[in-house]
Amino acid sequence: MSKQIGDDVVLARELVKKFGDFEAVKGVNFAVSRGECFGLLGPNGAGKTSIVKMIYGFSPVTSGKLEVFGEDIMASGRKIKSRVGVVPQEDNLDPELSVRENLIVYAGYFLMKKDLAKKRAEEILAFMDLADKSGEVVEHLSGGLKRRLTVGRALINQPELLILDEPTTGLDPYARHLVWQRLRKLKELGTTMLLTTHYLEEASQLCDRLIVIYLGEILEQGAPQDLIERHVGKEALEMGVDPLRREALIKGSEELIKARQELGDDLIIFTDYGRELAGRISERAAGMGILLNYRRLRQTNLEDVFLKLTGETLKQN
Ligand SMILES: Nc1ncnc2c1ncn2[C@@H]1O[C@H](COP(=O)(O)OP(=O)(O)OP(=O)(O)O)[C@@H](O)[C@H]1O
Ligand SMILES: [Mg+2]
């Protein structure tokens, strides 16, 4: 189907955010289509929160164009907010209220009638699997439950666009999977999602398309698998090679190598040659009298793309 005007739920053109003289977002361009899950992937300080805060109307645009549902965010902020759900990076639940009360109070910001608010709260408690915690005071909840409640709270106005700023940071793997499962369900139900993350697995699991963002700039954008294949091919061979012989091995194997990275004592070779590669490289190395300390063939992933683009691993502070 061809793309139609108004299909973009979010449209950013040369979008800039400055704090004083410091440019945190340096003129980025991207568009989020209806129904997709769009990711902003980047390390600490990349500018992810600065971008999403402008989209949910919390922080003014310094310059450039930012449209949500085809309307200028600066001119129509209030109208837009009623159609957006927000999970901020920092939890801002009311710790003294119960789980259910947090939902009902939040519904008040959307001027929702009490009866409707109560009905929506019950639906959300069931959907987020929080029904048996509904009477608990929030300050007694675990981090995972709080995050689930924050996601649930963002659904109170049945948003067409759900913005999630690091929805699972700090959660254990089980709690993280529970959130992912619910987000997948919401996507099936047609909700457009924009999420920031520095978890590569989260980006690969949930996002249809993503931008890789670093120091306020977009380094790449596309579907996770396309980015992987474009930059690093399908397989990576990790090996330990004497640093003094590394260049020789690389030169002697050039036609097998799509990209490479050197990390400490390790050499990582990226390729489309599949399983054959490990054998071929070993043969070359043996032929040149180069000892490989170890060898491990694995599938490539977004971390490899990130490493290739920035020279850094995507670790969190
Ligand atoms: N209110 C502010 N005043 C000054 N500088 C800020 C402000 N908010 C953010 N910054 C700076 O802007 C840059 C981008 O920050 P931002 O919070 O958008 O990054 P992020 O990608 O969300 O990082 P994280 O993964 O840590 O949440 C950082 O260098 C940060 O220090
Ligand atoms: Mg952030």
What would you say this structure looks like, in words?
This protein is an alpha/beta fold. The protein has 2 domains: 8-228, Rossmann fold, CATH 3.40.50.300; 234-299, Alpha-Beta Plaits (2-Layer Sandwich). 37% of the residues lie in helices and 28% in strands. The protein has 11 helices and 14 strands. β1 and β2 form a beta hairpin. α3 packs across α4 and α5 (143-153) runs parallel beside α6 (173-188). The chain is elongated and about 80 Å long. It starts with 7 loop residues before the first strand and ends in a 7-residue tail after the last helix. The structure holds adenosine-5'-triphosphate and magnesium ion. Magnesium ion (MG) is lined by residues 48-49, 89, 165.
SSE arrangement:
Layout: E1 8-19, E2 22-33, E3 37-41, H1 48-55, E4 63-68, E5 71-72, H2 73-81, E6 84-87, H3 99-109, H4 114-127, H5 143-153, E7 161-165, H6 173-188, E8 192-197, H7 200-206, E9 209-214, E10 217-222, H8 224-232, E11 235-241, H9 243-252, E12 259-263, E13 266-271, H10 276-287, E14 292-299, H11 302-310
Parallel strand pairs: 3-8, 3-9, 6-7, 7-8
Antiparallel strand pairs: 1-2, 1-4, 4-5, 9-10, 11-13, 11-14, 12-13
Helix pairs in contact: 3-4, 5-6, 8-11
The structure holds adenosine-5'-triphosphate (ATP) and magnesium ion.
Residues 48-49, 89, 165 line the site of magnesium ion.
